[in-house]
Amino acid sequence: MKCILTSIIVLISIQISAQKIINGTVFNMKNIPIAGANIYLEGTYDGSTTDEKGSFSFTTTETGTQTLIISFLSYETFTMVGDVSYMKDLVVKLREDVNTLDAVVLSAGTFSAGDNSKVNVLKPLDVVTTASALGDFVGALQTLPGTTTVAEDGRLFVRGGDANETQIFIDGIRVFTPYTPTTNNTPTRGRYSPFLFDGITFSTGGYSAEFGQALSSVLLLSTIDEPDQEKTDIGIMSVGAALGNTQKWKESSLSVNASYINLAPYNAIFPDRNDWIKPYETAAGEAVFRKKTGAGLFKLYGAFDATNFELTQEDINNSEGVHFKLNNNNVYVNGSYQGVLNDTWTLFGGVSYTHAKNNFNIIDSAVKDTENSIHAKLKFKNRISNRLKLYFGSEYFATDFKENYSDNTISSTAYGYNNNIAAAFVETDIFISKKLAFKPGLRGEYSELFNDFTLAPRLSLAYKTSGKSQVSLAYGNFYQNPSSHILKFNQTLKAQNTSHYIFNYQYNADRRLFRAEAYYKKYDNLVKYDTDFANFDSDYTNEGTGFAKGIDFFWRDSKSIKNFDYWLSYSLLDTKRDYNNYLAKSQPNFANTHNLSVVGKYWIEDWRSQVGFSYALASGRTYTNPNESGFLNNKTKPYNSLSINWAYLISPQKILYASVNNVLGFKNINGYQYANTPDLNGHFNRRALQPAADQFFFVGFFWTISEDKKSNQLDNL
What pTM did the predictor assign? Predict the structure, then answer.
């Protein structure tokens, strides 16, 4: 018995002597103790938590080299590898985790929407529920500050830049022909259906080094990664019909949309000032195929549309009017892959192809344009640490443009060009803390057409001023080759250039968002020519210059009034430029000094309805009055438009929708056309240029057939 007792005492003594004590104190970077931090040896049950003084202590029987883990919410995890005998009296300082939701966001010049966006300004749903948007991305974005109201055009004009200075990308790959063709004084629309997209990023300046060939703005559209259900969407509208279907399999899915629009019935009920020989007609189709792989996602997006119409427009210099006929076919295919290479590396690759064909007939002239364009991109991301991320990649743009022109004096003349551009970019996200972050970048481009290399630095930074607010700064240098209406006649120019300087303040809390942003843009190397219109015999130079400066405000509130969501935006723009055939540096005729937009949406529970309105006010735009001295010497009256919409939820799968643009029938004037010769009194007569249709009425019935009987059709609009 005495021998057994002795053996037990010896064994206990050995075990006690084999146990090691691990202890220490945990602080943050300000030397404040952290209570409740979790400490343990990796792969064991040995561990503890810190007390109110940040202290911890526990014992272990492990020996040799071990891994000690210390973690706490909102802080980066601390890891120590070493012999347990040296893990005594440790003093550990945890750094704040810069990936938390309350961390600073690099947001100067950028409006984002989507499930992964920390700062949502515009939601994808807003595209189809904003009264004035009529289901078009551009229409919804025109309610944001920084955009200019150019009602007769319909494209995006951003901060003093013309519409050609904004580029659109789908899943990171360039769209070369994003708008449907149209005629003079009739607004265009974007080609693509909002129902296939769930992410929008609209940058009004200072954007990433990843994107080039855009002087003013980029719009990024992201297709849905994974549809939530199988369904069929049926739309019957006053102007046509639409049909969509989504199918899901184990690792893949397919969504297709088809639509047909014919404005003949609408023009018969609501005639406008045009004599329509063949009213506007278009048929379009889109499809997105998705395939999950072991470490990534492959997407294939395709779109096709065919448009045709014929009309005679009023013209002060032609009593019979101006005859215009158009046939257009457009094909766009986009394939992309995004995947994980390992714990720190990810890869993105994509390519797009565009084939666009336009046949115009204008009076006695016949024009046939054919464009074939390719964009290929390869990008890598390396997460070196939570505080440092590296992005780099390369891309290639290739455009082959051909035009054949003929009239009653010329049988056929050919124009065209090949515009090939190779680019490389590098960029880093540097998070000093949760409050301070930088994004420096550099982009280089080589233009084969001009045999010229350009280098464009970019830099943005953001500082968190409080838990709900931050300030941001951004600088960028941007290059863009001239557009096709110039390059088809002259290929001896060089890239146009602009520099952006942006200061942003943002407050975001409790379903309320406020943004204020000041900016300055400087233009150089803009294209000038010496004729009324760009032509084969024009003299072209890169001697144009310009500037744009202003301040934008945005406020959105979905909290203060129950069931009511609204936003206000205002832009003040001061801009002048000397380009094209301008006689002097002047405010361009597409720029408004003041732009105001007010949008509201209210859900009425008893009526099972959402009602909304959108009001736009813009100051007058410049035009040249030949009866007075000077260039762009007058301004039109202000632009006003009030639009309303109503959506009635018949059942969870059925909805009736109606909208009216410019419901009060404001007679907006976009400018004036003057006679080529004066009358007997030496006075040049004029004709007001107004939108082809001052009002637009739209009624639709939408029906979703899905397995999820609880799905709300209102969320699908």
Answer: 0.84
